[in-house]
């Protein structure tokens, strides 16, 4: 059974998140309240990496309308490759790399490219999971229609919270976690921030503590694997990621990052789609064999 959160729906408030943008500054969705925001979710291991230039063109035409674009790459294995694609496209919009934050878990998507459009009041007005391509005429028209809508007559009621330095935020969260045996979400958030600050050993301990009480938490399993990867332990990384995939077998985001880590030559510099199809057939057959073996033991 998957432990992934339920996907958000159109009409839901967009959950906030914090990432570090490629220029090194914190990037929080809540900082954009009062503007219309599109999240473009892509990866260096996905053909959607070719969309960056087209999105820059769209952004240049519409940025004066109060519209902001945020590109987030799902790249735990090769963040430097995602960065290189961004640098090559030279986009003027904000970009970040999601290694442990797990927006796929927070928003509930398992395919790329995906898009989420959030209005000025922080409400999700449109989403598309998989196949989200601005080069497609239908997608282009939908986005233009959304941006052309009249703005809400009611001014957004939002009082921004003061942003604390990362070190102080970690200190406060650590104190909160220490004072109670409950609160796995806060502990998971603490682990993410420790990872962001480069404190991988401490981050690993916090992820391990979460997994003691929630061993089937996909996001924690995947993030724990990322910590092992940053420490150079690829074998342990794959153990965690494969456990996460068993829990969430429909997640192409987890599956393809495993593939990219184990067979980088099939994704860089070009993507071998025939290899992916064959790999999927092999893995499906392995599942059938395992199921037959289990049935025979009963």
Protein topology:
Elements: E1 18-20, E2 26-28, E3 36-42, H1 52-62, E4 67-74, H2 79-89, E5 94-98, H3 103-107, E6 114-118, E7 124-128, H4 137-148, H5 166-178, H6 184-196, H7 200-213, H8 218-230, H9 234-247, H10 252-262, H11 273-297
Parallel strand pairs: 3-4, 4-5
Antiparallel strand pairs: 1-2, 3-6, 6-7
Number of helices: 11
Category by helix and strand content: alpha/beta
Uncertain ranges: none
Q: Write down the overall mean pLDDT.
A: 91
Largest sheet: 5 strands, mixed
Considering DSSP H and I runs of 4 or more, what fraction of the residues is helical?
40-55%
What gap, in angstroms, lies between the N and C termini? Answer: 21 Å
Provide a brief overview of the structure.
This protein has about 300 residues and is of the alpha/beta class.
Explain the overall architecture.
- There is one protein chain.
- This protein is an alpha/beta fold.
- The protein contains 11 helices and 7 strands.
- The strands form 2 sheets. The protein has a 5-stranded mixed sheet with strand order 5-4-3-6-7, covered by helices on one side.
- Helix 6 (184-196) packs antiparallel against helix 7 (200-213) and helix 7 runs antiparallel to helix 8 (218-230).
- It is globular, with a radius of gyration of 20 Å.
